[in-house]
Amino acid sequence: MKGFFAEEGLRVQGMMTDMRSAVEQGKPHMLWVKTEQGLTEADFGYLDLDQLHHIAAGKVDYYIVDGGNFGCQEVLVPPDSPLKSTADLKGKTIVMPPSWATPFLSTQGPWFVHQELKAAGLEPSKDVTMTPMPWDALPKVTDYVADGFKTGKFAAVGVTQPIPLLLREQKLARPLFTRTYQAPYNQEYCCVFMIKRAIVDGQPDKAALIVRAFRRAKQWVAQNPSKAVIAAQEGSTGIVEPSANEAVSFGFDREVDLEQMLERAFKERMEAGVIKTDKTPKELVRLHYRRIQ
Description:
CATH architecture of the largest domain: 3-Layer(aba) Sandwich
Order of helices and strands: HHEEEHEEEHHEHEHEEHHHHHH
Oligomer: single chain
Radius of gyration: 19 Å
Low-confidence stretches: none
Strand content: 15-25%
Structural class: alpha+beta
Helix content: 25-40%
Number of strands: 10
CATH superfamily of the largest domain: Periplasmic binding protein-like II
Number of domains: 2
Strand order of the largest sheet: 7-6-8-5-9
CATH topology of the largest domain: D-Maltodextrin-Binding Protein, domain 2
Distance between the termini: 23 Å
Shape: globular
């Protein structure tokens, strides 16, 4: 929309990913869009770090080339809930989007949720029930959450921005723990930027232009969060300032050593048994990450 790709001489068409089809058809990642030819892989885009197990298994035909943002997911409870800490979730149910389930992700619920539950002394698969909400609930997810809290169908909900913001602004929920604000979860990219291997290997100059435009776009969002929110939502929202604050919290202008972060992330998941391979974390990074300047 801002022309960063066009300024690099690239013709780019932004398209919404079809998460539902990807999950229901057993695809190993979310970068699928609907075209006239049917479900098609995008040339580049975001991939959730919780899909590293598919990357390690060689099921994702993309290279990781850059970091995305820090955090965007929260686990929330009703404003008047007696639950005060993660430990209070023992014996409770967390409802979550259907794309947060295995095998699309490596665990039932995101990695940061599992890590938080374990830190609180809970065994995710035994002490807490994590269940996907129906796909049909997503278009009116705030209504679904409000009704579920009211009827006691579930004690907590895990969702991705902007849903947590909407729930908080409507006073339907409050955060119990978050990937957005809470260390150490907000110190690691939650999403990584991917480009098709054929482009990186066969058209390295074009791949470099894509990464350059992407980085310029991230910087623009970091420097102009309110304008970014208005542009993304076409001016239809009444909560520009809170949305802009959320955009700032995602750290689009922050950087970490992506190579080190990926090595650590692969190692953690290998030690937990969600990635099974005879390769070392360093070898996995060499296979699936390309540093593009």
